[in-house]
What we know:
Protein name: Ribokinase
Number of domains: 1
Domain Carbohydrate kinase PfkB: 3-276
Radius of gyration: 18 Å
CATH architecture: 3-Layer(aba) Sandwich
InterPro entries: PfkB_dom, Ribokinase-like
GO molecular function: kinase activity
Strand order of the largest sheet: 5-4-1-8-9-12-13-14-15
Organism: Segatella hominis
Distance between the termini: 37 Å
Amino acid sequence: MKDICCIGHITKDKIVTPNRTVYMAGGTSFYFSYAINQLPKDVTFSLVTAMDPTEKEPVEKMLKAGIDVSMNASRNTVFFENIYGENQNERKQRVLAKADPFTIQQLEHVDAKVFHLGSLLADDFPTEVVEYLSRKGRVSIDVQGYLREVRDEKVYPIDWKEKLKVLKHTYYLKVNETEMETITGLKDAHEAAKLIHAWGVTEVIITLGSEGSLVYVDDKFYEIPAYPPHEVVDATGCGDTYSAGYLYKRLQGATPTEAGKFAAAMCTIKLEHNGPFNRSIEDVEKIIKK
């Protein structure tokens, strides 16, 4: 029995900028796992992923880094192409290959207090899989992948058709302000959090960029500050880093405020460099104290 099990595909990412083209591993489960692996092992962790077995180099690197990974075979590895122009905020995204959805059979021998589902595309986790996991532990979802639909390789933002069926089995839900508005139709974070809670989510986490974040649980709102980075180098995986820090602290008994501050400080460090979070818990605590 692990404290946290992250379930999600690792991707092949092709990053195209005006200056160069880079190939690298990525995905929610990739950034979440490396972030939590940097922290003391007070919270036990495992990753369940799925890839084309001929492309398992990222999994082998994770095992060498001390991450507990089990890999299921998939016909393909998820393959994202991200093309950036001179303006880094403008991105064209294509999905060149999709992995097989996760199944109940793959997860029958997995036990954890919290299952964090790292969805990348809308069909990664069928509703029956979420319902099954909710009977074994608390389900945590980062909504981003549920709002991406692929048609002819192109990615389209969509509302989440199965949200009411899935959210009634969800304990933790993390959304950013754009995702919040997409699934609720509301611009006010407090009102959106109440609505998501009414749909069945126990603990609602809304990240608001430089405005910080908001947690709603037990009919209370907790306002979390943001810690400004020295410079923004790479925002990829920032939300996954937040989820890792937040769940890590909550499972140690921290309050929503304490967990949110810890998660926000981890994000600040992540923003300041390329790749996954790679610093220590002491570095995180220094930012909170300042």
